[in-house]
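Workshop exercise sheet. Pairs work together: one partner reads the sequence aloud, the other fills in the structure field after running the prediction. Swap roles for the next sheet.
Pair: D.N. / O.F.
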Amino acid sequence: MKITNIITYPINVGSGSQLVVKIETDAGIYGWGASGLSGRELAVVGAIEHYRPLLIGKNPMQIGAIWQDLYRGQYFEGGRVLTAAISAIDIALYDIKGKALNVPVYELLGGKQRDYIPCFASVRFATYEELIERSLYFVKNGWDMLRLAPAEFEKELKKDHRFEPRESISIIADWLTKLRKKVGSSVTIGIDYHTRLTIPETYSFMKRMPRGTIDFIEEPIRDENPEAYEALRKMIDIPFAIGEEFSSKWQFLPFLERNITQYARIDVCNVGGITESMKVASLAEAHYIDLMPHNPLGPICTAATIHVAAACPNFSWLEEVNSGAHTSTNDLKYYPIQPKLEGARYPVLDTPGLGVDLDEEYIKNQEFKPVEIPRLSRDDGSLNNW
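Structure field:
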């Protein structure tokens, strides 16, 4: 069997954008993959155009060798654009191999270690009323883990938003203190500040809430500097969840070796695909750190992550944004076959390959429009992280 073609499809789903990749073979078997570099899909398309002539004619079963060739086959190796491209290709190759051998992808990774994948609800909210109403709805419907995504700056719908960190932490800390009293102590609560804070702002935020209010904080500051996170680790006493932007095992390494993070927020579609994800999982296991995968992209990312999670012993929860309180990434018009939630979890099925398929004809008739994320500005006009 040989690779005959690689097709890229940047698409708009819901209010966002995705890049899906199809790899075809001379055996009539094809595989789907996806890139995780949201908002920069065309850059990844360009990288895949460079990779296409290297892949045509290759044996798609040799996934590890192909990964090494794509990563090391240029002087300027690595980086988020290239690993997002490699991720999409790698996932598609696993889909092909699973279909060719008539086994689900997790069988290629050592077999499943769990029968279902527990999820957390990603709860996006702009007002106190939204926070309480949506959180109570999920708890009532069996979700015992809530990851909160504050967006109080979105009370007014506009492209650019005002965000003052000190004002935000005062508001959100008060809201979370009240939320904990309403949901009780048995629900796990985390919060994603999406790199919008500094070290002292993060410290102040944590000190404004009673002990036990939240169970972890996700990426309060940027992740380029492990030493900065290490300093913050010494200042506050709840777990960190870090890693959704990491693009290799090497980027994860200091955070795992030095116990800077307590949850590895791996993104299968950014880190280098299933091949690299399993290596990160092993490194994390050696340091008693669980995976808490990033999953805001769509059904291909969900399916690939389900297989990784099924085959790993060290796993906590999978992110779920299609829960009614965030956004929609799984439109059935694009993805007629996709993983389906059962309550707050995904069953681990025995479908060959990934277990996801797209309506290619529908996709071909859709116009793609690049999506830019909004900008957050402080009162003085300076820019903050989105």
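Discussion prompt: Residues 3-103 form a domain with the Enolase-like; domain 1 fold (CATH 3.30.390.10). What would you look at next?
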